[in-house]
Amino acid sequence: MNGSQDAGDVVVRRAVPIFRIFDVAKAHEFYVDYLGCTMDWEHRFAPGTPLYTQVSRSGLALHLSEHHGDATPGSTVYVELTGVRALHAELAAKDYPYLRPGLEEDEFGTCLTVTDPFGNRIRFNEPLPEEPGN
User: Fold this and answer.
1) In a designed cystine with 109, which of 4, 60, 98, 127 is the match (CB 3.0 to 4.6 A)?
2) How many CA atoms lie within 13 A of 43 on its CB side?
C-alpha cells in the first residue's frame, strides 16, 4: 500500500486461498474424510457445470474450484497453527492409502505437509515458542 493512505482505510478480514481440483469425489475424500474439513457450501452455475466450493476446519478456509483458470495445480498454502503433533497423530490413524505425511523439524518449528490428489500442498507449521524478551 502506498504511504499516502491511512492504514485504517484498509482492513483485511481474511485471505482464502483457491486450489484447483479436477475430481469432486477425490476432493471430498481428501478434504472432508481425511483432513476433517467441513464442506461449507457449493456453487454451480447450472447442473453439470464446474464446482466452486468452500471447505474449512478451525481457522482454515479453502476454496476449491473445478473452473479452468482458477488457480494453478501444485500450489502451496502455509498455515500456522498450534497442535501440529495432534494433527499428525489424527491423520496417521486414518485409513487413507494415498498419503502418510511425516513431521519435519527445523530451527523455525515443526511442519506437517500434506498433498492433495491434485498436487496442491498445505504446509501446517507450528512455530517454536517465542523466547522471553522477543
Assistant:
1) 127
2) 9
